[in-house]
Amino acid sequence: MQTNEQLLSAIENYLAQTEFPAEPELLYAPIGYSLAGGGKRLRPMLLLLSCGLFADDVDVALPAAAAVEIFHNFTLLHDDIMDNAAVRRGKPSVYARWGGNVAILSGDAMLISAYRLLAQAPPALLPRILEVFNTMALGVCEGQQYDMDFESKQKVSVVEYMSMIELKTSVLVAGSAMMGAILGGADEEQSRRLYQFAIELGMAFQLQDDLLDSYGDDRLGKAIGGDILEGKKTYLMITAISRADEPTREVLRSTHRLQMPDAEKIATIKAVYDRLDIPRLTEQQISLRFERALSILDTLSVEPARTKRMRDYAASLMGRKN
């Protein structure tokens, strides 16, 4: 079995060797630019690791792994247009560098390229793979719409927020894991357990991202406090509003619109978060989801050595030692 480092290298090599035409340049150059931007390669890694739980040779899953990474990057191109985002992974977004029209069309081409790669799956498994992929892809769109709806919605509950991030973030993570399991020869029950494992891991990952947006540092490749400056309804903001008195709620809802330096806006909201114990509560929810994911992983009928590789990867993803 390959190590996690070897699996990541195999993904990078496969993506690098995935050829796109040179012309028209404005269609294909942004695709290469986007894919070269790095990132954790979370989704293709989970797909290969899931395949490796049930099979020794994961090469059969490489096209699907590339497909989910290309699909993920396609969603980022379109997200940046909707968010008017100038930066992605520490460099200009495709939207900022080439404009909205190019980002739309290049994103569309990436989606088609993902389907081309998926079509390389073994014929007997292809219908199931496409079913999982299509359900996953539609779920991501639904989650994005709910996220946009929340921008104009006066009150959003924690339950609503959790449902939204399950669609927008976790479904793509879970679909990737399930496709890997199918390609590895897992039965329906094992595939579904792995799907639930990845749902919980994806939720923990997104909640951690929410926390790091306010309490991380600039090594993350994006400006710290961006969610606060946008007035975004994250888990931290929604939980704070639910625990605050009315004057404090008004501070939480309106600070991002005030005429004051950005640093002061961020400091104001973080002071409220600290006073309401929001970082600890968020960490508590992250740990709950992470431990729940591991408990599901332990129910799989596979060798402990195989699940250990997945556990180790999940722990490293969450910045944990075990």
What does this structure look like?
By secondary structure, the chain is mainly alpha-helical. Helix content is 73%, strand content 1%. The chain has 15 helices and 2 strands. A two-stranded antiparallel ribbon has the order 1-2. Strand 1 and strand 2 form a beta hairpin. Helix 1 (4-17) packs across helix 4 (62-83), helix 4 packs antiparallel against helix 6 and helix 7 packs antiparallel against helix 8 (158-184). The radius of gyration is 20 Å and the shape is globular. It starts with a helix and ends in a 5-residue tail after the last helix. The model has no long low-confidence stretch (mean pLDDT 93).
Q: Radius of gyration in whole Å, from Cα?
A: 20 Å
Biggest sheet: strand arrangement = 1-2
Classify the helix fraction into a percent range: over 70%
* Biggest beta-sheet profile: 2 strands, antiparallel
Mean pLDDT equals: 93
Strand content: under 5%
N- to C-terminal distance = 21 Å
**Secondary structure tally: strands:** 2
Structural class determined from secondary elements = mainly alpha
The quaternary organization reads as single chain
What is the chain-wise order of helices and strands?
HHHHEEHHHHHHHHHHH
Number of helices: 15
- Shape designation: globular
Low-confidence spans: none
